[in-house]
Amino acid sequence: MLQISKYLYFDSAHKNEHKGGKYAQLHGHTFYAEIIAEGSLHPDYGWIVDFSEIKKSIVPIINMLDHSYLNEISGLEKDTTIPSIENWFREQLQEKPWWFKSIRIGIIGDLDFKPCKLPAEKDLPELWRFSFESAQSLPQLPNSHPCHHLHGHSYFVKVASKDMNNLPSVLRKIYDLLDHRWLNEIPGLEKATSEILTHWIIEKLHEFNHPPDIVIVQETPSSYCIWRDKK
């Protein structure tokens, strides 16, 4: 039997008070939902099922989670762990499509500080990359805008500086200030767009006597902000 997978994403805030530690703090992630379909090859079309049919069934459920605070969603109030979200998701599929096999939920970032050195490519030099998991809202936007509401992201930050050897220890300090936090509660990040966050990181690097050459903040898999020193 053949299987295919389709990845969809949602950005949400949550906290797991029963887990304790930093997980009990309000934070957020970019979650992925891997939808696994199974079936026989269609004799005419040469596929199991059209990906558009998968999206038609799954996207309305994804939209219930996207740009939301999971602890306020009916059925997730007491438990927003990955297994609980997976079970909740299956319950929303009251009549499972014939092609539905299973679903896997995960996050695209790291739960700990795991710096990674990226090689130079195209117009970018070597960069150190790390990720952090935080909640945010953009209260300056109209209430009708999805980002006005509490949600979360798995942020990826890439930095280059003249002292690449000592950069990870400085980035660890920035990670500790941002990870598993509600960014709006941090001074200077009350309106935490990726542009403002980029400037905030630049300021912190200067405070730590480590001026950057390049800072990139990636808020979602398809969007990022980049700053380059013009000197």
Characterize the structure shown.
The structure is a single chain. This protein has a five-stranded antiparallel beta sheet, with helices on one face. It folds into two domains: 2-107, 6-pyruvoyl tetrahydropterin synthase/QueD (Tetrahydropterin Synthase, Chain A, 2-Layer Sandwich); 116-228, Tetrahydropterin Synthase, Chain A (2-Layer Sandwich). With 231 residues, it is of the alpha+beta class. The longest helix is centred in the N-terminal third of the chain and has 15 residues, at 51-65. Helices cover 23% and strands 32% of the residues. It has helices spanning 51-65, 82-92, 167-178, 194-207, and strands spanning 2-14, 27-39, 68-69, 100-107, 116-118, 127-136, 151-161, 212-220, 223-228.
What labels describe this entry?
single chain, 231 residues, alpha+beta, Tetrahydropterin Synthase, Chain A, five-stranded antiparallel beta sheet, four-stranded mixed beta sheet, 23% helix
> What kind of sheet is the major sheet?
5 strands, antiparallel
CATH class of the largest domain: Alpha Beta
Q: How much β-strand is present in the residues?
A: 25-35%
**Tally of extended strands?**
9
**At the third CATH level, what is the topology name of the largest domain?**
Tetrahydropterin Synthase, Chain A
